[in-house]
Write a structure and sequence with these properties.
The protein is 26% helix and 32% strand. By secondary structure, it is α+β, with helices and mostly antiparallel strands. A hairpin with a 5-residue loop joins β7 and β8.
Length: 238
């Protein structure tokens, strides 16, 4: 394969990765707390010997998570929580601490506040939050303070990364922090609400169509290039 073929092939690989992410975004457009994801393209240019033009190779190895606010949907659930502003809930998993914007919580048999997958929700001190089984009226303030019948029990941790690039995608709607976490002082908790996905299905579908057409155009070029090389080889072999 010549340089033109290698260049087109790297572009095809990047477009294929973007197609997969776009399809995943569309599939999760109704998933509570889901954050839209995209691909970051980069270019490597190599000067060649002689009079040949420089060789440009594309790469799409970096993924970006978009943290734009999703719409808040009322549910009325006492443990349904939504965050307005920058910030995440801090979750304990077997793989370490994770972040999420999906606040559909519940209590387990031990009275711990947990996610639907059973992962404990942590307070500001990094401890699990316990809600008494026979608890009365449960209230959660805008700063995350959990109270029962007016008596405070704990304060839910609201944190944010120093840089959005320090977040790595984890299974489901969880994000893995790879850098330092800071208190999300400006974040506000809304009890009885859930934050919807921040995916716009219409714009994602439009982008999906555009990328699909670009991929088909690149594949057509590779097919023609392959045919040209075959014809050259057959001609020289006679």
């Amino acid at each position: 394969m010549n340089n033109a073929g290698y260049t087109a092939l790297t572009r095809q690989y990047g477009l294929q990765r973007e197609l997969h992410l776009l399809a995943n975004n569309i599939a999760n457009s109704s998933t509570t707390g889901y954050r839209r994801e995209g691909v970051l393209f980069s270019e490597f240019v190599q000067r060649l010997d002689g009079t040949e033009a420089s060789l440009s190779m594309a790469a799409a190895n970096a993924r970006q998570t978009y943290l734009t606010q999703g719409a808040l949907a009322p549910t009325g659930g006492a443990l349904d929580l939504a965050i307005e502003g920058d910030g995440f809930f801090l979750i304990e998993t077997p793989q370490g601490e994770r972040l999420t914007r999906a606040g559909h919580f519940q209590t387990n048999g031990d009275g711990e506040m947990v996610t639907p997958d059973g992962y404990p929700v942590l307070d500001e001190g990094g401890a699990r939050i316990f809600v008494p089984v026979d608890a009365g009226q449960l209230a959660i303030a805008r700063d995350g303070t959990v109270s029962v019948d007016g008596d405070p029990l704990a304060q839910i941790a609201l944190v944010r990364p120093t840089d959005a690039a320090d977040l790595r995608r984890a299974p489901g709607v969880l994000l893995e922090p790879t850098g330092e976490l800071l208190p999300a002082d400006d974040a506000v908790v809304h009890q009885g609400f859930l934050e919807e996905s921040n995916v716009d299905p219409i714009s994602e579908m439009a982008r999906l169509i555009a990328v699909q057409r670009a991929y088909e155009l690149g594949q057509s070029f590779l097919d023609r290039e392959d045919e040209r090389i075959r014809n050259v080889v057959q001609t020289l072999g006679r």
